[in-house]
Structure formats: structure tokens, C-alpha cells
Amino acid sequence: MLQYPNIDPVAISIGPLSIHWYGLMYLLGFGLAYVLMNYRAKQANSGWNKEQVSDLIFYSAMGVVLGGRAGYVLFYNFGKFVDDPLWLFAVWEGGMSFHGGLLGVIAACILFARKYGKSFYAVTDFGAPMVPIGLFFGRIGNFIGGELWGRVSDAPWAMVFPKGGPLPRHPSQLYEAFLEGLVLFLILWIYSRKPRPTMAVSGLFLVGYGVFRFAVEFVRQPDSHIGMDLFGWMTRGQILCVPMVLFGLAIIYLAYKRQSQQA
Predict the structure, then answer these.
(1) Average pLDDT for 174-199
(2) Binding-site annotation: residue ranges
(3) Angle in degrees, CA 244, 177, 148, rounded to 5
(4) DSSP secondary structure, 102-147, as one string
(5) Does residue 34 fall inside a structural domain?
(6) DSSP tag of 13
(7) Model confidence at 260, in pLDDT bands (50, 70, 90)?
(8) Where are the alpha helices (DSSP H) in the chain?
(9) What is the DSSP letter of 169?
(10) What is the pLDDT of residue 101?
(11) Is 68 contained in some domain?
């Protein structure tokens, strides 16, 4: 068993102002994505400039925050929302959903595409390789905050989380940081270095994230107020990943089919 590094979730405290590591992780994620997007934008015939990159980062940040909160409330705690609709705005209590954040970013990309006269999938194909960067830092933030831990385990790398009871558990946040963050980033970055048919990069992101998240859910502790869904053997996260994977496979197929028809 490994010792959990009990890090203070507050990174900086100045008087009444407290800056949490989780918030800093968001800033790091968007900051690095901004740098890499500008690098890609400077490539010949990219069709992107610095102003567009800045706007896309801003639109995406709003989509992540608003969609992430709304998704958590609707997908994971709808009953509480029905009892108290204003709880939707209680962001200080925590609670963010990746799938909600994804829907928020999709909405943001639609608005961005209309503003700049780009196709929706041209925007998502450009931005998709950067999403795992935010996922990596976000999961590290979860780990530092001692939240979203894994199921009880006797693995030699299992840890006792302060909020997770006395038994050692899988550090599933680190599994997700590795798979959904580092591995998925490398896959998408390398794949998108060469011209690909429109929609293919976006589809690969959906498939990659869905598969990795589905796998990690087997060792991640389900939400206590939900437990296991779908006949008691799938988590809510796994159920939400299935349509992602299916839709991703569908648009990859359509992307290459359209390319072959135009050849």
C-alpha cells in the first residue's frame, strides 16, 4: 500500500482569498492548450490565427464550466435539483461532470463556428487534441482534493484516501489522468499531425475517451447516491460513455467513406 500524499487542497491563501489546486489545474490546462493551439495555428495553411485561438479557448472555458455544472446536476443529482432548482447555481459546493462539460463545449463550438464562418467539425477537429490536456490536469486536481477515488483494493499501489474510509483504494484519478490525459493526448496529437478527413479527429477523441473512461469505471467508486445502474453492472459514467463511442465510430466511418467517394 502506498501513502496518500495528503496535500492541502488550498494552494494559496491570502487573507480571506483562497486559491484551490483544482482551480489552478484548470488554468494550467487551458494555458497549455492555448500554447499548443497557437503552435498548430502557425503551421502553413492552418486556417487559424491567434485571435481565433483566444476566442475558442474562452468559448470552451465557458462551455466546460457551465456545461460541467449543469451536467453534474442533471446526470448525477437530478433529484436534488428537483427539490431545490437553485442548487444548480451552488457551484461553491463542487460537482462537475465531464459529459456535461462536453455538451457545453459542443454548444460553444457551434456558436464559435457561426461567428467565424467555420464548419462545426473544422472547429472540433482543431480543438479535440487539446482536450486531454485539460482532462489530465483536472484528474490531478481530483487526486489532490482526495475526491473521486477508486474502489477498495489490495493492489500494492492502493491508497487510503482521507475522505474514503479506512480501507485502501485504487487511485483511479491517476489512472484517468494517464489514460484520458497523457495517452489520449499522444494518440490525438500524432494522428492529427497529418491531414485527416473532416470529423475523423473528433470521432477518434470520442472513441478514445469513451473506451478509457469505460475501462477505469470498473475500478472507480460509483457515486454513493447512485450506485450501479443498468441491472446493477454498469455505472452512470459507463452508460454515458456508450453513446460517445458509438457516435465516434459512426463519424469516423462517415469521414473516411466521404473521403473515398471524393477521391
Answers:
(1) 97
(2) 139
(3) 85
(4) HHHHHHHHHHHHHHHT--HHHHHHHHGGGHHHHHHHHHHHHHHTT-
(5) yes
(6) E
(7) confident
(8) 21-41, 50-71, 78-83, 98-116, 120-127, 131-144, 172-176, 184-191, 200-216, 236-262
(9) B
(10) 87
(11) yes
76 close to 97: Cβ distance less than 8 angstroms: yes
Q: For residues 14 and 233, what is the distance between their CA atoms, to the nearest angstrom?
A: 46
234 in a domain, yes or no? yes
Would you tell me how many other CB atoms lie within 10 Å of the CB of residue 180?
Answer: 26
Cell 466521404: give the residue.
258
* 260 SS3 class: helix
Decide: helix, strand or coil at residue 92.
Answer: helix
Cell of 142: 481530483
| pLDDT at position 100 | 85
Bridging pattern class, strands 17-20 and 10-14: antiparallel
CB–CB of 136/173 below 8 Å? Answer: no
What is the dihedral angle through the alpha carbons of 225, 159, 179, 39, rounded to the nearest 10 degrees? Answer: 110
Q: If DSSP codes are grouped into helix, strand and coil, which group holds residue 196?
A: coil
User: Which residue segment(s) compose the domain that 132 sits in?
Assistant: 10-262
* Residue-wise pLDDT tens digits, 199-258: 999 999 999 999 999 999 999 998 765 666 666 678 888 998 999 999 999 999 999 999
- What is the value of pTM for the model shown? 0.89
Number of domain units in the chain: 1
The C-alpha atoms of residue 198 and residue 121 are separated, in whole angstroms, by: 6
Domain assignment present for residue 4? The answer is no
Residue 66 CB neighbour total at 10 angstroms:
18
